[in-house]
């Protein structure tokens, strides 16, 4: 699950997009975590690609194995660069840890300042360096 928007240490701001002013709905971190916990098919990963969201990841990994949040404000281009490389690495068959590190490296390699802002939090019983979310097809099947 991916959230991109505005947040704080204890809230997420969802854009309603129902009128010209695009009013937002403020949701507490505990309500969001409760909604994630309530579903039968829980996601394996929650990415909060929004400022000051890292504090929410500890509560999320009580329900999901992996959560990514931002330790402070992050520039839009930094957040987009991180997410694009992170998901590309997941699609390439990298581990969750490898994809996270590649996302951070992409931000730094592009000369952007916020490469240390994305943080990965894991449930105590999982190993992010050994967990693949997607298995790419064998090279012999790629046409």
Description:
The protein has 143 residues and is an alpha/beta fold. The protein has helices at residues 29-38, 57-60, 76-91, 96-109; strands at residues 2-4, 6-8, 11-15, 24-28, 45-49, 66-70, 118-122. It has a 4-stranded mixed sheet with strand order 1-5-6-7. It has a 3-stranded antiparallel sheet with strand order 2-3-4. Strand 5 (45-49), helix 2 and strand 6 (66-70) form a beta-alpha-beta unit. Helix 3 crosses helix 4 (96-109). The longest helix is centred in the middle third of the chain and has 16 residues, at 76-91. The radius of gyration is 16 Å and the shape is globular. It starts with a strand and ends in a 21-residue tail after the last strand. The mean pLDDT is 93.
Short key terms for the protein model shown above:
143 residues, alpha/beta, 4-stranded mixed beta sheet, 3-stranded antiparallel beta sheet, globular
Radius of gyration: 16 Å
Can you tell me the residue ranges where pLDDT is under 50 for at least 5 consecutive residues?
none
Number of helices: 4
| Shape call | globular
How is the largest sheet built, in terms of strand order? 1-5-6-7
Mean pLDDT reading: 93
Q: State the end-to-end distance.
A: 30 Å
Q: What share of residues is helical?
A: 25-40%
> Strand pairing plus helix content: what structural class?
alpha/beta
Please report the total strand number as a whole number: 7
Biggest beta sheet attributes: 4 strands, mixed
Strand content: 15-25%
Order of helices and strands: EEEEHEHEHHE
């Amino acid at each position: 699950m991916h959230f991109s928007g505005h947040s704080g240490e204890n809230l997420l701001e969802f854009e309603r997009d129902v009128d010209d002013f695009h009013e937002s709905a403020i949701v507490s971190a505990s309500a969001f975590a409760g909604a994630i916990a309530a579903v039968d098919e829980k996601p394996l990963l929650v990415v909060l690609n929004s400022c000051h969201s890292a504090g929410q990841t500890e509560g999320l990994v009580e329900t999901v194995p992996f959560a990514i949040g931002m330790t402070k404000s992050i520039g839009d281009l930094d957040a987009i660069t991180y997410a694009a490389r992170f998901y590309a690495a997941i699609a390439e068959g990298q581990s969750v840890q490898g994809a996270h590190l590649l996302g951070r490296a992409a931000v730094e390699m592009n000369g952007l300042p916020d490469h240390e802002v994305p943080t990965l939090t894991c449930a105590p019983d999982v190993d992010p360096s050994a967990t693949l979310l997607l298995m790419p097809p064998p090279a012999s099947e790629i046409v």
